[in-house]
Amino acid sequence: MDAMEQSIFVHDEPKSSSSKRLQDKVAVITGGARGIGAATAKVFAGDGAHVVIADILDDLGTELANSIGGLYIHCDVAKEADVESAVKLALAWKGKLDIMFNNAGIGGFGGSITAMDMEQLKQLLSINLHGMVHGVKHAARAMIGGHIKGSIICTTSSAAIMGGLAAHAYSLSKAAVIGLVRTTACELGAHRIRVNCISPHGVPSEMLVAAYRHLMGNADLSIEEISKIIGERGSLLHGRAGRVEDIANAALFLASEEAGFITGHNLVVDGGYTSATTNLSLMYN
Known about the structure:
By secondary structure, the protein is of the alpha/beta class. The protein folds into two domains: 22-202 and 244-274, NAD(P)-binding Rossmann-like Domain (Rossmann fold, 3-Layer(aba) Sandwich), CATH 3.40.50; 204-241, no CATH class. The chain has helices at 3-11, 35-46, 58-68, 80-94, 118-128, 130-145, 168-188, 206-215, 223-233, 244-255, and strands at 26-30, 50-55, 71-74, 99-102, 151-155, 194-200, 266-269. Strands 3-2-1-4-5-6-7 form a seven-stranded parallel sheet, with helices on both faces. Strand 5 (151-155), helix 7 and strand 6 (194-200) form a beta-alpha-beta unit. The longest helix has 21 residues, at 168-188. The model is unreliable at 1-17 and 280-284 (pLDDT under 50). One of its GO terms (molecular function) is oxidoreductase activity. Belongs to the short-chain dehydrogenases/reductases (SDR) family.
């Protein structure tokens, strides 16, 4: 083995399994006070990251931040200045930003396209789309300025890639995020900044639970009951619904160097729902 082969071999040698994947990385998570964001904050912190939780749920966010040794900041992602402040807090705290998880979002309103309320649409887009643009913009500025080979992640939805899963307004807002991720990955790749997104399906977060209760006209449905419904109807893994931890672990992968050659990608976490039908499986059971 010559010197070059030896250097390549040593460079590619796997790290110890005991090492933390996000050791001393600095992350900002919008919508981090509960649901997918809170689960991700816990997973990131457990793997060595310093986490800034940005949300409008001040009590929940502060309590969670204190429990993981992080910081909390009030942040309405529809306001660019709020998102910029969250990024600046990370810079003031640790001097850098390695990871931006643009996770904050709201559910859509229903109804026919023929009766679309454009003011309601503008409000939804101000959070679900403009909020994502704010996050990518200010994270990119911080990472480029600090010469950080960072990771920017956005939460989208299975409704962005498959029609009929959600209301028109919500679906179009999430589809636009995939476009945002792909185009910004092209620009930011020159700075070794990776931009990816995650499309969850059927994860009974607080937002989805509220939507199911409204859809089914039953405010007393428990999370367990909703998970059972999702597991039976919305997954190839019969009886297995998604969990917020599934999305948190996907975000951990995309944030880490294990995903160092992945950018411009939409990671769909859906139990196979959007890829295939469960009908054929009935022939074998």
